[in-house]
Amino acid sequence: MIPKIIEAQRKLVPEMMELLHQRYKVLKFIEVAGPIGRRPLGQMADISERECRNLMEMLRSEGLIRVAKEGATITQEGAAVLDTLGSTIEEWTGHGLIEKKLGDLLGIEGVQIVPGDCDENPAVKSLIGKEAAEEFMSRISDSQIIAVTGGSSVAAIPHHIHTIENADRLHFIAARGGVGDDIGLQANVIAASFAEASGGTYSTFYYPESLSAEAHEVFKREPTAIEMMELYEKTDCVLHGIGNAHRMANLRNTPENEIIQLQEQGAKGEAFGYYFDGSGNVVHRIRTVGIQTEQLKKIPLIIAVAGGKSKAEAIMSYMASAPRQTILVTDEGAARAMLMKMEG
């Protein structure tokens, strides 16, 4: 419940809460993106450069941010203010209710929503990464195997992870082979980033996606593939992205006839090399060595990250058959688009 004094203030001075929310968002963006300049910050917060300058000056004068040549950064006092106001702002904006409703509709353990839409503002992806990192660090325990997929949303998480106690007992692995040409977004590289940020260890695993069926069968008998398959059976946590089916097919240089087949079968979303239709049915899967959908059911902690209004259908298609213990971290753009589709 919103504290009574806040509710009374909202009724007496309704513009006060709007102003509080705006300043809270700006401070939150500085925390995540800092050091950040006035212009990009104004674009993130969707306010004019003049408004942004005035806001930054106010926050600086209150000791909540530092402003230097390279941009604005949050102070310890500013971080404490965010922490204190977080739950109140969420309740006032209705985020908590939306998260509960969306989690129930999707049939999963929980949903965490960050402000914004990463389709319109790429910096929002960093907010998703921060929220996912906090969720991960609050739930993970030592002596665990953590599998991570590739993709820009998952790649945003390690930047917000700090050294974890007994992290030498955390072992990060790639959930499957790489996709596309951007080496920085490959699962192997991201697993290494998690290990470096937390102080854990990691294993690399390379699987060429263009293998024929015969070569795939041979590869599965390789010692490294056998070792990875054994690790997948022991995995305690998975952090993964969700892709748009058409975009993922293009990233994989999928033949035109297969792309047409995916469209005819109604493929909407992709995760772990599986393509899902709107009802959550697997309509296609790529030939790879990686975590299988049946293995996911046994993994205690699953954190899915994806945002942007354009991803709404893809997220819904995967979530239609996702394990119940999944936690989705997304943004307002995707969340509201999903609610409109499910309630409309």
List the strand order in the largest sheet.
3-13-12-7-4-5-6
Helical segment count: 16
Question: Multimeric state of these chains?
Answer: single chain
Largest sheet: 7 strands, parallel
Strand content: 15-25%
Poorly predicted segments: 179-183
- Count of discrete domains: 2
SSE succession: HHHHEEHHEHEHEHEHHEEHHEEEHEHEH
Mean pLDDT: 88
Annotated CATH architecture of the largest domain? 3-Layer(aba) Sandwich
What's the overall geometry? globular
CA-CA gap between termini: 28 Å
List keywords for this structure.
344 residues, alpha/beta, Arc Repressor Mutant, subunit A, Rossmann fold, 7-stranded parallel sheet, 16 helices
Topology:
Layout: H1 4-12, H2 14-33, H3 38-45, H4 49-61, E1 65-68, E2 71-74, H5 76-93, H6 95-106, E3 110-114, H7 124-139, E4 144-148, H8 152-155, E5 170-174, H9 187-198, E6 201-203, H10 213-219, H11 223-234, E7 237-241, E8 243-244, H12 245-251, H13 256-264, E9 267-271, E10 274-277, E11 282-285, H14 293-296, E12 301-305, H15 312-319, E13 326-331, H16 332-343
Parallel strand pairs: 3-13, 4-5, 4-7, 5-6, 7-12, 12-13
Antiparallel strand pairs: 1-2, 8-9, 9-10, 10-11
Model description:
The chain is α/β, with parallel strands linked by helices and 344 residues long. A seven-stranded parallel beta sheet has the order 3-13-12-7-4-5-6, with helices on both faces. The chain has a four-stranded antiparallel beta sheet with strand order 8-9-10-11. It has a two-stranded antiparallel ribbon with strand order 1-2. A hairpin with a 4-residue loop joins strand 10 and strand 11 (282-285). The protein has two domains: 4-85, Orthogonal Bundle (Arc Repressor Mutant, subunit A); 95-343, Rossmann fold (3-Layer(aba) Sandwich). The chain is globular, with a radius of gyration of 21 Å. It has helices at 4-12, 14-33, 38-45, 49-61, 76-93, 95-106, 124-139, 152-155, 187-198, 213-219, 223-234, 245-251, 256-264, 293-296, 312-319, 332-343; strands at 65-68, 71-74, 110-114, 144-148, 170-174, 201-203, 237-241, 243-244, 267-271, 274-277, 282-285, 301-305, 326-331.
